Amino acid sequence: MPDGSAPVTAPLAPEGLRVLHVLRAPLGGLFRHVCDLARGQRQAGVKVGVIIGDEPHDPVSIARLRELASDCELGVHIMPMNRMPGLGDAANLLRMIARTRLLAVDIVHGHGAKGGAYARLLPRFAGARRLYTPHGGMLHFDRHSLKGMLFFAAERLMRRRTDGFVFESDFSLRSFIEKVGEPTAPSIVVHNGVTAADCIAVSPEVGAANFVFVGELRALKGIGTLIEAMRLVKKPIHLRIVGSGAERAAFETMARHAPSNVRIKFMGAMPAREAFALGRVVVLPSHHESLPYVALEAAAAGLPLIATRVGGMPEIFGPDAGKLVAPGDAAALATALVHAMEHPQDMMALAERLKARVQAEFSAARMVQGITDFYRALLTPATEPHPGEGAPAIHLGEGLPS
Questions:
Q1: What's the pLDDT at 2?
Q2: Do 189 and 207 share a structural domain?
């Protein structure tokens, strides 16, 4: 991969809508979102570029970054970013100003706290409208904690430098209003979406485990709660854990202390669809989420799903939101695991309903059109917000193609 000064591909002439996406880490759902958005926007005739804070190291993310480069006519630019503020941010901001002006960008869309900060700190003379999508992240902080107070204070200041907000769930919008305040520029809710490839059915492999977890190995993903729930089950039970993360060793220690009827195997990182085949039921025991792609992908593939009532998960489950489990409740999760083993027909019926709902309401085509139409609306003078005034949120309505 090149350094921050060289694009992967050469930019084209400045014609049509030109968009630059900015994010820090090429990981997880945020990276998946940007990749799908870039691909869909390129297919819609938008010239797309990406600034990313680090090169990925796992094979899955490396392959995805290579695919992303093929969709970015304005290039993929590596610009190292620390998670926390530092002196390097000033130099990066100067590079971003130069890159934005050189590429004649219309929209700079920052994703996550760091990408959003870079996008919104751009001065007006850079010539682009500045958009922000939180993607959960900092919205999960306790607003009474020191870190939360600092981040939310910074968000309140940057609200005034934001030309448009895109929230990927109603949950994120509500959390932003509660912890930061009303958006002071036009805003819209556009759900994350899945592709046609995601909707191809996945079948469990021969010898599949009872359950599979797919995600980053972090405490907030509820893996500790899941292991504790497994220990409460008295019958033989088998779990495979797919993913990578700094806290893997701690979870492996917990798993080694499980009783003899419990089998837990850590599989490392792999593509989600490959991982889904390792279990009969996907379990997402998260303590915090926004609108997780793993849940959308599992539902789209027709897989039985156990999940917690966090973030935008009720938006995915819709009428079946009552099936969601309380986060952090190992006993309730253990009950759900036992029910899934004893009543597979109930789980398959739920899977069929979720698949139909996700295919109808959470498509990548709908996501791309909603966000791109919002860009174009912001570039229309009639949508220019008055300084210091708020603007009502728009919810992506009916009528868009699925």
A1: 39
A2: no
Query: Which pLDDT score is estimated for 15?
Result: 54
Residue 10 lies in a domain: no
Residue 357, token pair as written in the block: 């709902």
Q: Which two tokens stand for residue 181?
A: 């305040």
How many Å apart are CA 148 and CA 145, to the nearest integer? 5
User: In this structure, is the dihedral angle defined by the CA atoms of residues 45, 49, 54 and 59, taken in order, positive or negative?
Assistant: positive
CB 304 within 8 A of CB 282: yes
For residues 67, 113, 282, 226, the Cα torsion angle rounded to the nearest 10 degrees is 140
- Contacts of residue 204, defined as CB under 8 A and 6 or more positions apart, other chains included, come to 277, 278, 279, 280
Q: What is the CA radius of gyration of the chain?
A: 21
Q: Which domain, by its residues, includes 138?
A: 18-193+364-395
Return the pLDDT at 59: 78
Both 162 and 262 in one domain: the answer is: no
CATH number of the domain bearing residue 325: 3.40.50.2000
**Cα separations in angstroms, 230 against 221, 240, 246, 326:** 16, 12, 22, 16
Owner of token pair 């899955």: 60
Taking the CA atoms of 35, 38, 39 and 41 in sequence, report the sign of the dihedral they define: positive
